[in-house]
Design goal:
By secondary structure, the protein is mainly α. It has one domain. The chain has four helices and two strands. A two-stranded antiparallel ribbon has the order 1-2. α2 packs antiparallel against α3.
Length: 101
């Protein structure tokens, strides 16, 4: 492996860490803020993905960071996105961190 390969692997790991941070923030907000009547956080993830794509066209170095953070945030609320839940309170029940809800 060359130095360039290690740089690519390092960058991929950074992107995955940013996606995980987005996932973790989404799960924590789902657990602690799920009782608040507000927009579901997958909407914010999709907005961030769109902003990241727009930044991509302007050749911004932050574009992929914003996209991966938005992907992590969206994945953390994937079930509500599939059911097209836009606004409201999450149903009561056990909340798990390692769960797509």
């Amino acid at each position: 492996m060359t130095i360039r390969d290690y740089m690519n692997i390092k960058q991929i790991i950074i992107y995955l860490m940013i996606a995980f941070i987005g996932f973790a923030i989404g799960r924590v907000s789902h657990i602690y803020g799920g009782e608040i009547k507000s927009p579901h956080h997958w909407i914010y993830g999709v907005i961030l993905i769109i902003i990241g794509i727009i930044l991509w066209f302007y050749k911004s170095e932050w574009s992929l960071y914003v996209i991966f953070f938005g992907v992590g945030l969206t994945i953390s609320d994937l079930k509500d996105m599939i059911d097209l839940k836009f606004y409201g309170v999450d149903p009561p029940g056990p909340k798990k961190f390692w769960h797509i809800d």
